[in-house]
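Anyone opening a protein record will find just a pair of labelled lines. With that in mind, the following record should read easily:
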Amino acid sequence: MRHALENHRLSISINEIGAELASIVNLDSGREYVWQADPDVWGSSAPVLFPIIGMLADGKTMIDGQEYRIPKHGMVRNNPNLELFYHSEDRLTFRLCYSEETLKLYPYKFDFRITYRLRNEHIIVYHEVMNVDDKPMFFNLGAHPAFRVPFIDGEDYSDYFLRFEHKESAGRYSVLPNGTVGDVTRPVPWQDGNILPLTHELFAKDALVFKDLSSRSITLESKITGPVLKMDYAGWTHLGIWAKPNGDFVCIEPWIGLADTPATGGQFMNKEGLIELESGQTYEMSYDIKVL
């Protein structure tokens, strides 16, 4: 089931399964901004990443001496147990609470909520993680929205690029064949220090993974028709840029944390960027998509 919001500029819809952003349509042009989850290429549109990002090494991790097998990108993605918690004229909130099944995968009691707010030409995505356990809980958090490239019919993938807010020299890491992140830095084909041209070959070795970027926003642009959309991600510590090499889309992925690295050593508490949340507390984080 999908749930929708609409204003004078945009119409958006959210899949109840996984609470994925499934559509952003410009009402003036009728154009769709979100990748439409072609299962023959990549059958998602905007996975929600909690309590891990990416893969665990060997698919498992140790927490307090016990082994757990948290699936890739965590427990929200593809989960049919999310409920529509709140629906108003300008926002939709989805909720996933811990259960006996989640405790078998991840030993913390949580109340997770994600809200999509439509405001003029903006889609603001709010995350709330509530610790309803009697002990501190630990997690990573991330977003994975995929945007259509090319956006205009008749243009090519290579007509598009990402414009970072500032010139960048931040660390960027390789993704290993098992889906974890390696220590070796990966060269990035910058133009002028802040322009990343999009080509299918760019993703032949998986995602580009950045840490400690100066930029707090990225704009998706066409060389021919100009800016398409802008993502603001202040507060997020890492960023992934990814597509399938044969996919006509690009994912702009703000994260707090990473997939496992060699330093993780199979121990959950060694994961990079781990958020610690005390009992009874709530963690909040958001990002903003602006249609241009």
DSSP finds one helix and 24 strands in the chain.
